[in-house]
Each structure stands twice: as C-alpha cells, then as structure tokens.
Write a structure and sequence with these properties.
- This protein is mainly alpha-helical.
- Helices cover 71% and strands 0% of the residues.
- It has one domain: Helix Hairpins (Orthogonal Bundle).
- The termini are far apart.
C-alpha cells in the first residue's frame, strides 16, 4: 500500500472497529511513536557501523516490523492532526535544500548554523 490517504483510511477503520479512537490523541500517538523509535534503536545498540548494515535475516525482519510500527503511528498522527504528509515532506526537503546546499556541505556532518 503506497497511497497515504488510503492507508490513513485503513488505519482509521482499524482503530474505529476496536474503539481505539479514544486512545489516539496526538499526545498518545506521539508518545507511542517515540516508544517504537526506541525499540528500533535497541536493535542497533552496541553494533558496529558494519554490523548495522549487515543484519541477519531474523533481525532484519524485526527491524522491518519496528519501522512499520513507527510508520503506522506517524501516519495515524498526521491523520488526527489533518497534516498532509507528502506535502509536509516536500516542504521540509525544500527547507533542507536551502539550509544545506550540496556544494557547501558535501561530506560534512556539521549543522547548518556551523558553516
């Protein structure tokens, strides 16, 4: 499923059928998102850079499930707030392109305020 509005509708229906809408406030969804991000980070804790790129299949499956959880909460949160995610991403990319011109920052991890 690649269509965000279709996914939002599916998730909305999923929550409504379980009477979970009452729990899906922006506050609760943002907290759940952070919890899932922490669970994702746990899979990479103590790994070397190389190990993080070469996860065994079972670990990669687990990481995929954490990413899915994060995405679900993100999409649900945007839906609850009426935020058009693709539009927000487009705006953010444009802002980042202005803050981090490729010819100026290539190969540097410095923040835009440091150059």
């Amino acid at each position: 499923m690649t269509d965000i509005p279709e996914l939002q509708e599916r998730l909305r229906d999923f929550a409504e059928r379980r009477d979970w809408k009452q729990f899906h406030s922006p506050k609760n969804l943002s907290m759940a998102l952070i919890v899932e991000a922490g669970e994702l980070a746990e899979h990479f804790q103590w790994l070397t850079q190389d190990e993080s790129f070469n996860l065994p299949d079972d670990k990669l499956q687990d990481v995929g499930e954490e990413l899915a959880d994060i995405f679900v909460y993100l999409v649900r949160l945007a839906d609850q707030l009426g935020i058009d995610l693709p539009e927000a991403v487009d705006r953010k990319i444009a802002l980042n392109e202005a803050k981090y011109p490729a010819d100026l920052v290539r190969g540097s991890a410095k923040k835009y305020s440091e150059y």
